[in-house]
């Protein structure tokens, strides 16, 4: 990827689910890609597919975003390869579930590193490139879990609340610069997410298909300058209800939705 003719998108979490979908859609739109995740074989397979189908350049970067310093190493690798980034899709993420008192502290640390620290630092480190680009796009994949605290998904919901909040503030700060900033808030979506979480507590309501979520994201990117999009009418109604309901009511409802009260054992 030495001679840069096309815009370049960095997509994290591209080995599966929504991230893989974003990489395919962006390749179809003529972006060269840097695809990031841990599973190298999946990234290489995707790279072969995208090169063959869309004639774009693809650089697979196998990286554990839970490791300290990972975002800085990615930014350095891009700079060393003279790659200027036009679009960043911060999609890598996972969730832990269960009563907070029973959570594995090491897993929680990784969750915060992947869901909060990595997207924050990647956005910060690549922002100068994104702002210089005529196609600048910063897409932060958040969740409907970001709209209210969620008992049994306490850390995940708090991480995603941070992502939506950060993204909306960057949207305001960069308004008028030409950079498109969007927090995408899907509800449950049919990916490997539930398997990775090892829990069905995330399956609250209807499970959407990946294409439905991607269609919603690109519709908003192409047709509006909204800072946040919640995917699906039912999810938008729930987000509004969570905003106006008293906190105790919202907490009780989200506790029921994620499987009811868990006995306090710690
Ligand atoms: N599916 C849902 O119901 C849902 C709903 C709302 C929001 N979301 C959000 O959507 C995003 C994408 O999730 P998905 O649904 O597409 O799930 P997925 O199919 O499990 O994909 C998760 C991606 O994140 C990557 N990832 C996880 N841990 C990583 C690490 N330590 N270092 C680098 N990459 C890592 C995975 O790659 P490797 O395993 O190869 O590293 C994979 O590519 C996440 O941010 C998630 O929170 C999902």
Radius of gyration, CA atoms, in whole angstroms? 18 Å
Bound molecules: NADP nicotinamide-adenine-dinucleotide phosphate
- Low-confidence segments, given as residue ranges, are none
When the domains are counted, the total is 1
- CATH architecture field: 3-Layer(aba) Sandwich
Structure description:
This protein has one domain: NAD(P)-binding Rossmann-like Domain (Rossmann fold, 3-Layer(aba) Sandwich), CATH 3.40.50. 48% of the residues lie in helices and 13% in strands. It has 9 helices and 7 strands. Strands 3-2-1-4-5-6-7 form a 7-stranded parallel β-sheet, with helices on both faces. Helix 4 runs parallel beside helix 5 (154-173). The longest helix is centred in the middle third of the chain and has 28 residues, at 105-132. The chain is globular. The model has no long low-confidence stretch (mean pLDDT 94). The structure holds NADP nicotinamide-adenine-dinucleotide phosphate (NAP). NADP nicotinamide-adenine-dinucleotide phosphate is lined by residues 13-19, 37-39, 64-66, 91-95, 114, 141, 143, 186, 188-189, 191-193, 196, 202. The site of NADP nicotinamide-adenine-dinucleotide phosphate has 29 residues, from helix 1 and helix 6.
Keywords:
single chain, binds NADP nicotinamide-adenine-dinucleotide phosphate, 266 residues, alpha/beta, Rossmann fold, 7 strands, seven-stranded parallel sheet
């Amino acid at each position: 990827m030495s001679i840069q003719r096309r815009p370049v998108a960095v997509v994290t979490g591209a080995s599966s689910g929504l991230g893989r979908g974003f990489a395919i859609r962006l390749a179809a739109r003529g972006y060269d890609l840097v695809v990031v995740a841990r599973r190298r074989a999946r990234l290489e397979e995707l790279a072969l597919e995208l090169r063959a189908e869309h004639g774009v350049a693809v650089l697979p970067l196998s990286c554990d975003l839970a490791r300290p310093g990972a975002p800085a190493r990615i930014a350095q690798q891009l700079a060393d390869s003279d790659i200027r980034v036009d679009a960043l899709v911060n999609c890598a993420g996972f969730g832990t579930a269960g009563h907070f008192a029973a959570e594995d502290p090491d897993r929680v640390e990784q969750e915060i590193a992947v869901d909060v620290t990595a997207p924050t630092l990647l956005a910060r480190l690549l922002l100068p490139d994104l702002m210089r680009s005529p196609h600048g796009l910063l897409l932060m994949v958040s969740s409907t879990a970001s709209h209210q605290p969620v008992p049994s998904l306490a850390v995940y919901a708090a991480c995603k609340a941070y992502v939506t909040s950060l993204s909306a503030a960057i949207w305001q700060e960069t308004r008028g610069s030409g950079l498109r900033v969007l927090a995408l808030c899907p509800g449950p979506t049919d990916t490997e997410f539930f398997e990775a979480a090892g829990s069905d507590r995330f399956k609250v309501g209807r499970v959407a298909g990946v294409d439905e979520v991607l269609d919603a994201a690109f519709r908003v990117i192409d047709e509006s300058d909204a800072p946040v999009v919640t995917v699906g009418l039912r999810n938008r109604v729930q987000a509004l209800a969570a905003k106006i309901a008293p906190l105790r009511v919202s907490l009780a409802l989200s506790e029921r939705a994620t499987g009811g009260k868990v006995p306090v054992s710690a």
